[in-house]
Specification:
The structure is a single chain. By secondary structure, this protein is of the alpha+beta class. The protein is built from three helices and seven strands. It has a seven-stranded antiparallel beta sheet. A hairpin with a 5-residue loop joins strand 6 and strand 7. The longest helix is centred in the last third of the chain and has 24 residues. The chain is globular and about 50 Å long. 38% of the residues are buried. It binds zinc ion. Zinc ion binds next to helix 2.
Length: 188
């Protein structure tokens, strides 16, 4: 099943995701299809909401980016690539550290980029695609991607975290995208 990435203006992007009680074959199929859609769009992360499902599920793979990441498991540094491809089911996040700025985009907001301020590190506990519990800490792009995707699972979008100035600067594009999506939904 080829999944379509929904754009800003689609109501599912504002829905909080439901917890996934068990990793059924259907969930595994959805995860696989989400990875395919994310790689096809050359993204580093994709949330279930972005493919029309309000669930506590996102997929991440930062290996295609040159932006640095670091990670730790059980207090020991690990190669972040060793955690990829990463599916997070029912993730619990504890962000920590100083607030840092970094560029972000979103597959549901084509061509719109902005610096977003977030804590530099994040501690993550989740189930992976195999139903195993994973625990790790991340910094850099991986931390940022996880925090961005986890926001999606709660109906929060990166435009909500833009500075007032950035939001104002991007307002015409954001409004146009919203109107275009609404018009497409009406036609269906
Ligand atoms: Zn996004």
């Amino acid at each position: 099943m080829a999944l379509h990435v929904v754009k800003y203006g689609h109501p599912v992007l504002r829905q909080k995701g439901a917890a996934i009680p068990t990793i059924t074959p259907e969930v595994r199929g959805l995860i696989e299809a989400m990875f395919e859609a994310m790689y096809a769009a050359k993204g580093v992360g994709l949330a279930a909401q972005q493919v029309g499902h309000a669930l506590q599920l996102c997929v991440i793979d930062i290996r295609g980016s040159e932006r640095p990441s670091t990670a730790e498991v059980d207090g020991h540094p690990v190669d972040p690539s060793s955690l990829m491809p990463l599916a997070l089911v029912n993730p619990k996040l504890k962000p920590f550290g100083a607030e840092v700025d970094g560029a972000e985009g979103c597959l549901s907001f084509p061509e719109i980029y902005s610096d977003i301020t977030r804590p530099e590190g994040v501690e993550v506990e989740a189930l992976n695609q195999h139903g195993q519990t994973v625990r790790f800490k991340a910094w850099g792009l991986l931390s940022r991607a996880i925090q961005h995707e986890n926001d999606h699972l709660n109906g929060i979008l990166f435009i909500d975290r833009m500075t007032q100035d950035d939001r104002k600067e991007h307002k015409p594009e954001i409004d146009a995208l919203h109107a275009e999506t609404k018009a497409k939904l009406k036609k269906k």
